[in-house]
Amino acid sequence: MADFKAFDPYQLKQGLTDTYGNTYIRITIYIKALAMSDSLSPPTLFKCLADATRARLTLLILREGELCVCELIHALDDSQPSISRHRAQRRSCGLLQDRRQGQWIYYRINPALPEWVTQVLHTTLQANQPWLHSDAQSLDAMGDRPQRASTCC
């Protein structure tokens, strides 16, 4: 007798749900990226960076590639609610993206930003190293990323 697996309609439904769900997420991200490139005007960008903490947070993330909230708290010497509020404002502007790794959420500069925004951010970072020096020193004192993960979050 042939050894056939029993048909499970739930698995078929779950597979389709996952496929359509992933497709929906990708389309949503693409639409947001298109809308962001049209809506991120110079006044919007500069408004997003108009606070010293917001600018420092954004430039540190650009400098490091990505950072978790605990690293930002340590580097900026600020409270978690304050850092989270500023970070949320950066996400709503479309400047930041996040990724989850276990219990940690890491934030990075949105790679779908228009080229002019990326150039403004990089130029600002390069021209303001002295302004960020103490924040960068605090962050660097945490050690390498694996050691940071063990000392924070």
Question: What would your notes on this structure say?
Answer:
- This protein has 153 residues and is mainly α.
- Helix content is 69%, strand content 9%.
- It is built from eight helices and three strands, in the order αααβααββααα.
- It has helices at residues 9-39, 42-48, 52-64, 69-76, 80-93, 115-127, 129-140, 145-151; strands at 67-68, 96-101, 104-109.
- Strands 1-3-2 form a three-stranded antiparallel beta sheet.
- A hairpin with a 2-residue loop joins β2 and β3 (104-109).
- α3 crosses α5 and α3 (52-64) crosses α6.
- It starts with 8 loop residues before the first helix and ends with a helix.
Mean pLDDT figure: 78
The radius of gyration computed from the alpha-carbon positions, rounded to a whole number of angstroms, is 20 Å
Question: Which secondary-structure class do the elements indicate?
Answer: mainly alpha
Which strand order do you get reading across the main beta sheet? 1-3-2
Total helical elements: 8
User: Unreliable stretches, pLDDT < 50, 5 or more residues?
Assistant: none
Largest sheet features: 3 strands, antiparallel
Fraction of residues in helices?
A: 55-70%
Query: How large a portion of the residues is in β-strands, by DSSP E?
Result: 5-15%
